[in-house]
Structure formats: C-alpha cells, structure tokens
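Bumping my old thread because nobody answered last time. Still need a sequence for this structure:
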C-alpha cells in the first residue's frame, strides 16, 4: 500500500520540478521570512528596552514623535535625554532624530541588542548596545560633533569650538560609575578654548588622544595638540565623582608656545609658575578650578 506523501516530500518535488516552479517556491519562502522579520521588528519593545537600559542610571529618554524607519527599526523625532537624579531634572543632550533597529540575531536568541544612529551636535553618533545583565556593553563611533553645541562641557564653564570625532567601547555596570569601564580614541580639529568669560580664545588646532576608564578613574595618555597657539603633550588622570563637576584632575603637561601663541599670549605665558622651557607643568585639584604648578 503506497505511503502518503509528506509535506517535505511535496516541497522537495516542487524544488526539483520545472525551473518556474522552483522560483515560485523560493519566492514564497522568502516572502514568508520577510513577513516574519517585519513582524518581529515592528513588535520589538523599543520603549521597554531603552527604558530598561537607562533606568539604572536614572536617565529618561523623551521624544515627540515615533515612526517606522525603513528598511528596519523606528525613528524618534526631537529627542531629549534627562538626568532624573536632580530636581528639577537636568537636560543632558538633545537630538533632532534618533534611529533604532534591533540586531536580527538578538530577536532569535531573545538577547536585546540595538543599533542606534543619532544626529548629534551637527554630526552623528552610532552605537551598538548589548545587554548582559547587569552589564550594558556598547561600541560607539562619533563623527564631526560640534564642541560649541555640547551641553555636558558647558557645565564646567569652559567654552570650546571645533569638531570632535572618536570611537571605542564601554561596559556599564548597573549605574555604578566606579564599576564602569571604557576605552576611546579621540581626535579634534580646529579646536579653540575659552577658559573663562572674557578671556581670549586659545587656538589648539588638532587634538588627538587615548582615554581609558576603570574603577572611577579616567586615564589619558599621549594627548597631543598641534597647529595652534601651543604645541602640547599631556598625560594624567581624572578621578570621577557622581556629580561630574566635583571630579578632580592630575595632569602632567609639556607646553611649547608657537609664534602665534607668543604674539597673542606672551604676557600670559609670563604669568605661569615658570617658563615653559623649564619643564612640564603639574595641573591638580577640582576639575572646575585646578591649580597649576
């Protein structure tokens, strides 16, 4: 008695049949996979996932509009990130548009992983976020951010202009700043700095450096400045506080004025503890008002 053909037998016969039949089967399978992927992406809990990632740091993301972003993901319009540890809450950063999309493999294995692409400070920021409780890991790439528009830098009373780019990784541990880790390579172009209101702007030109964070300390080395009013090389540490304005700094700085620097700031260089030619400077104390020796 002949056995009843199974569905897999039918599918195999269709695939082995005439070429037009094979293509129909392949098209149906692909359409089914696309529909499944679209359903998974559309139903992905973007809000819940982002809120869960930010909650340990008492950060809140607020946006005015949400819409689909083809081919995958969603786009948030007019986005603001707030620090809710203070009352009233403090604005940290704003972006006109943030695009989020899940990594397809994370949908299959139920391990939330997001790709983020944001318009930020006239440039762009790209992140890949992975949650491995209680740790959030992120790879980031920032390009052409305008320092003049940076909210976090303004709180220190230092006015900067120019463009900054950087890339690296971070490992954030459930809101505990002392357990967070990070590694970043930074570059800047056409950088100027105004130390205090009314003080002439210092042209730094190009800036490069490598930064690492561990155990609540940011260590930087081979930070170099070229093409402006000074040629400089710095190494040091920043000991972070929960309120970043209370952080302290210890820097070893080699400084050489250029011709433009001597022309613009000759008198000010004479006010330093010793001439630059006599050796490096030590910068220590609170980040808001360090001392130079």
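Sorry it took so long. Here it is:
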């Amino acid at each position: 008695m002949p056995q009843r053909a199974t569905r897999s037998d039918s599918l195999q016969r269709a695939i082995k049949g005439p070429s037009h039949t094979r293509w129909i089967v392949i098209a149906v399978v692909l359409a089914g996979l696309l529909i499944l992927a679209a359903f998974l992406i559309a139903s992905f809990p973007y809000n819940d996932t982002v809120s869960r990632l930010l909650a340990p740091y008492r950060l809140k993301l607020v946006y005015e509009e949400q819409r689909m972003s083809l081919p995958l993901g969603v786009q948030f319009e007019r986005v603001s990130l707030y620090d809710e540890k203070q009352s009233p809450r403090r604005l940290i950063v704003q972006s006109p548009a943030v695009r989020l999309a899940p990594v397809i493999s994370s949908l299959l294995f139920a391990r939330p992983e997001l790709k983020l692409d944001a318009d930020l400070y006239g440039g762009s920021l790209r992140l890949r976020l992975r949650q491995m409780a209680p740790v959030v890991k992120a790879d980031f790439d920032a390009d052409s951010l305008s320092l003049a528009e940076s909210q976090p830098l303004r709180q220190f009373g230092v006015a900067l202009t120019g463009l900054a780019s950087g890339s690296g990784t971070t490992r954030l541990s459930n809101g505990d700043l002392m357990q967070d880790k990070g590694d970043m390579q930074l570059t800047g172009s056409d950088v100027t700095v105004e130390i205090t209101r009314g003080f002439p702007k210092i042209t730094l030109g190009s800036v490069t450096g490598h930064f690492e964070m561990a155990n609540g300390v940011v260590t930087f080395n081979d930070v170099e400045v070229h093409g402006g009013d000074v040629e400089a090389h710095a190494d040091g540490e920043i000991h972070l506080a929960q309120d970043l304005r209370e952080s302290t700094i210890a820097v070893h700085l080699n400084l050489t004025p250029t011709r433009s620097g001597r022309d613009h700031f000759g008198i000010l260089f004479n006010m330093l503890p010793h001439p630059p030619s006599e050796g490096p400077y030590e910068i220590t104390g609170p980040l808001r008002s360090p001392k130079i020796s």
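Helices lie at 7-16, 19-42, 46-54, 104-109, 151-154, 259-270. Let me know if any region looks off to you.
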